[in-house]
């Protein structure tokens, strides 16, 4: 009786294992079918991604070229005293501002915010690198077009 019972258990274990293997096979077969249907979409997406990478590289090269051209056109002190000393491309503006009541000149040169009390005075660097700064609107001031330049140091 014990031998018959043990032999029967072997078949039950083998049947359970076979059932498990069949369930695994079905699961992976269905996953393959679903992914196989997505294959054309994934290929299309890959080609679009390749094109985006190429377009991005071309745009970066163009921007670097424009930057180099502008750097060649701008000499030190070019932004002082006037709003535009050279004819920049539409994407780049050289800024010089005179605070009319105080007669103080602020300008942007080489990614720095510089200051002069009088037009012929020595330049004082107010902010070392504007590329690291953010702008915060001043809402508590009555004058229009006022903002704060917030740098990592001040």
Automatic annotation (TrEMBL):
GAP activity stimulated by phosphatidylinositol 4,5-bisphosphate (PIP2) and phosphatidic acid. It is found in: Endosome membrane. Gene3D superfamilies: Arfaptin homology (AH) domain/BAR domain (1.20.1270.60), Pleckstrin-homology domain (PH domain)/Phosphotyrosine-binding domain (PTB) (2.30.29.30). This is Arf-GAP with coiled-coil, ANK repeat and PH domain-containing protein. InterPro entries: ACAP1/2/3-like, AH/BAR_dom_sf, BAR_dom, PH-like_dom_sf. GO terms for cellular component: endosome membrane. GTPase-activating protein for the ADP ribosylation factor family. Keywords: ANK repeat, Endosome, GTPase activation, Metal-binding, Repeat, Zinc, Zinc-finger. The BAR domain mediates homodimerization, it can neither bind membrane nor impart curvature, but instead requires the neighboring PH domain to achieve these functions. PH domain binds phospholipids including phosphatidic acid, phosphatidylinositol 3-phosphate, phosphatidylinositol 3,5-bisphosphate (PIP2) and phosphatidylinositol 3,4,5-trisphosphate (PIP3). May mediate protein binding to PIP2 or PIP3 containing membranes. GO terms for molecular function: GTPase activator activity; zinc ion binding. It is a peripheral membrane protein. It holds the Pfam family BAR_3. Residues 1-63 form the BAR domain. It comes from the Eukaryota.
